[in-house]
Specification:
It contains ten helices and 16 strands. By secondary structure, the chain is of the alpha/beta class. It folds into two domains: 4-171, VC0802-like (2-Layer Sandwich), CATH 3.30.2130.30; 180-392, Rossmann fold (3-Layer(aba) Sandwich).
Length: 396
């Protein structure tokens, strides 16, 4: 299905919806949004932080996806994407915007929110553009309310593709996701290997899909990074760890992060992830999303070698998984440089800090998991992370 159509040198490109992504790791953000909105077809646009979404969903579904997402700033509904061709084209752009708004009207007060992606387009400033569009909306009969509008018209100026995308906005377009305020080092119980909350939230969303589709399981919870982000997303989530010290520390972190959220649906308990059928709390039900950041080296517990432990955990997970469950596995690797814009190719081999990539592939295959995508996060000069997404293979 075509999600957009070129209609002329200075004419707009019409798209169903356009997602505006944050700049930290657009490739992971695209995967996250595809998991949160499985009923929509997705397509990367020329701008590295712009993504087309095609299909029919309610604004409530879009709003929930943006609210829990780590990588999406906003979604522009019934979007218009304009190829900028210099200052002389701006009058035509404004006219196209007004025509577009008339074709997709809203009831109530409005405000215009404009921002930049990836630098500047000469002669196009967010404040000036917002004022011009707001003035024309006022002329068209809309009441402007900059403080608490009923609707926001979003405009993103994307320098990487020399385009301007706009539409009625779900979300606020903020560059900061608020997640950074929960840095792992600020938790009462902290270990240096703890994941950044942004990555933890992305992993939960990629693995679990839409909120309220089932239980998310943090199989080796450690200090509770996955558990916290899943709980704050409104998910039913269970954190499991073999080490009682980790369980107690995670309970402290959960109480710290969820202060004021007494209605959360998070549980943490001691248990063996190689035997999930008996370790999970009663009433947990089939698990729809699994997240796993296994401990290695000095942080590792138990008698099994790392790859044998991984295989045992994956087999156990498959036994309690929902028929369309997802899994995100995070493994430490030797640095491969920055890869923020695209997943790894299927044939690309990664250099693991512990074990061989072929062993991971074999463990996944033998335990009934199919790889859907792999991404790289650059941590520092001597460490990277592999983020792997897999889905359960249907059993006969």
């Amino acid at each position: 299905m075509r999600t957009r159509q070129e209609v002329g040198a200075q004419a707009p490109v019409m798209a169903r919806h356009v997602a505006c992504l944050r700049g930290w790791h657009p490739a992971l953000a695209r995967a996250e949004l595809a998991s949160l909105l499985p009923d929509l077809e997705t397509e990367r646009l020329e701008g590295r932080r712009l993504m087309c979404l095609d299909g029919d969903v309610t604004e409530g579904v879009l709003s929930q996806a943006v609210a829990v997402s780590s990588g999406c700033q906003a979604i522009l509904c019934n979007a218009l994407v304009w190829a900028h061709q210099g200052p002389e084209s701006m009058d035509a752009f404004i006219a196209a915007v007004i025509e577009h708004v008339q074709a997709h009207p809203q009831n109530g007060t409005v405000a215009v929110r404009a921002w930049r992606h990836e630098g500047r387009i000469e002669g196009v400033g967010p404040s000036q553009l917002a004022q011009r569009i707001g003035g024309r909306l006022s002329d068209a009969g809309y009441a402007i309310d900059l403080d608490a509008p009923d609707h926001r018209f979003g405009v993103v100026i994307d320098a990487s593709s020399n385009t301007i995308a706009c539409g009625w906005m779900v979300g606020f377009g903020d560059e900061s996701d608020g997640i950074a305020t929960r840095r792992a080092a600020e938790r009462p119980f902290f270990k240096p290997v703890s994941l950044d909350p942004r990555l933890a939230r992305l992993a939960v969303n990629i693995a679990s899909g839409p909120v309220h589709t089932g239980t998310t399981l943090d199989m080796m919870t450690g200090t509770g990074g996955f558990l916290i982000e899943a709980a704050l997303s409104g998910r039913t989530v269970v954190g499991l760890d073999l080490d009682e010290v980790m369980v107690q520390g995670t309970q402290e972190n959960l109480a710290w992060a969820l202060k004021g959220h007494s209605d959360h649906m998070a549980t943490v308990c001691q248990g063996d992830s190689t035997n999930l059928s008996t370790a999970l709390p009663q009433g947990c039900g089939p698990v729809s999303g699994f997240v796993l950041d296994p401990p290695y080296g000095r942080n590792s517990q138990g008698s099994l070698a790392p790859m044998k432990l991984l295989e045992s955990v994956l087999i156990s997970a498959q036994e309690v998984a929902h028929s369309n469950a997802g899994l995100v596995l995070i493994l430490p690797i030797h640095p491969m440089g920055e890869h923020p814009d695209a997943p790894l190719h299927d044939e690309e081999v990664v250099d693991l800090l512990h074990g061989e990539w072929s062993e991971v592939e074999q463990a996944l295959s033998l335990s009934g998991w199919s790889i859907q995508g792999r991404w790289i996060e650059h941590v520092h000069a001597s460490l990277g992370r592999l983020i792997l997404h897999a889905t359960v293979v249907p059993q006969d």
